[in-house]
Amino acid sequence: MTAQIDSIANKFFSYGYFVQGKDTLPYRFYIPENQPNNKTYQPVSTLIFLHGSGERGNNNVSQLMHMGFWLMNAAIDNNMAVFIPQCSRNDYWSNVIKTAKKNGKTKFQFQEAGAPTIAMKLLMGLTDSLKKQPWFNPKQVYVGGLSMGGMGTVEICKRKPDFFQAAFPICGGGNIPNPNPKMRWWIFHGNKDKVVSIKHSRKLIRQLHFAHVTDVKLSIYSGVGHNAWDYVKLEPDFWQWLLNPSLIPSSTK
User: Fold this and answer.
1) Are 163 and 139 in contact (CB under 8 A)?
2) Using CA atoms, how far apart are residues 201 and 189, in angstroms rounded to an integer?
3) 33-50 mean pLDDT
4) How far apart are CA 145 and CA 207, in angstroms?
5) pLDDT of residue 33
C-alpha cells in the first residue's frame, strides 16, 4: 500500500533542481495554476517540507517517502505550493555534531553558531529564489520536517527568522537562541522515541518560551516511537492551524 501511495505522489509532483556553484539541490514541487487560462498566477501559500536522514540521496524521489501522499492531498485541497527538497547522502540539513553512544543511540549537539551545511546553503538559496516568483505570497510561507528534517526546520528558522510565518518540526530538535517572536510553532514528538530523544523538543519549547514566543504548541504522542509523523497526519486541525489559524476556536488552539 505504501509503495502505491508513493507512486501516486511521485507522478503528482514535478521535478526541479536548484544549482548554486558546483552544488545541486534536487527538489519536487507543485504550484497551483489558479487562473482560468492557466497562464498567470495569483499569490498562494507556500510550504517547504524537509525529509529525514533515511531519504537522503540524489534520485529526487526518496524524499516523498512517509509524507508525499499527505502533502499531495494538502496541496490540492488548500491550493498551496509545496516544495520538497532532497539532501545529499553525505550531508545534513542542520549544523549538528552527532556522536554514537555505547548504548547504540546517537547524541545530538546542536550548534548555536557556525556556518550552515552545504545542504542548508542550497536550501536557503532555494527559498530566496521563491521570493521572485509571481505566485509567491511572503505573508504565507511555512516550513516543516521530520527527524533530520525537523532539525533542519529549526535551523532554517534560525538562519532566516523573518521568512516563515509558522513551523512544525516533527521528532527533531535544534538550537534557536533568537527566534522570531511573531512566528507560530507546533512541535511533535513520540515519548518512546529511541532515535531522537523527546528531550530535544522539550528543550526547544523552553528556548522559545524564554525568547517570549507565545504561539507555541507541543504535542507528545504517548507510547509512540520515532514515527511521530504518522500521527501528525491524523491531526484534524493541522491544516487549519497552519493556513487559517484565525478560524480555529480559541478552546482548541
Assistant:
1) no
2) 7
3) 78
4) 19
5) 79
Please tell me the predicted confidence (pLDDT) of residue 42: 82
- For 90: left if phi > 0, alpha if psi spans -120 to 50, otherwise beta; the answer is alpha
Write the CB contacts of 223 (distance below 8 Å, at least 6 apart in sequence).
190, 191, 192
Q: What's the mean pLDDT in 42-55?
A: 95
- What is the arrangement of strands in the sheet containing 23-30, beginning at the earlier edge strand? 14-20, 23-30, 81-85, 44-50, 136-146, 166-170, 184-190, 216-221
Q: Which amino acid is at 25?
A: L
The C-alpha atoms of residue 229 and residue 171 are separated, in whole angstroms, by 8
Q: In whole angstroms, what separates CA 225 from the centre of its chain?
A: 19
158: which DSSP letter? H
Exposure class string for 90-107: b at 16+ Cβ within 10 A, else e:
ebbbbbbeeeeeeeeeee
Burial class (CB in 10 A: 0-12, 13-18, 19+), 171: buried
State the CB neighbour count (10 A cutoff) for residue 14.
9
Cell of 140: 504565507
Residue 242: burial class (beta carbons within 10 Å; 0-12, 13-18, 19+): buried
State the DSSP H helix or E strand holding residue 244, giving kind and residue range, or none if neither.
Answer: none
pTM of the model: 0.93
**Nine-digit cell string for 95:** 549544523
- Which residues are CB-contacts of 185 (< 8 A; sequence separation ≥ 6)? 166, 167, 168, 169, 208, 213, 215, 216, 217
Query: pLDDT of 133-174, one tens digit each?
Result: 989 999 999 999 999 999 999 999 999 999 999 999 999 999
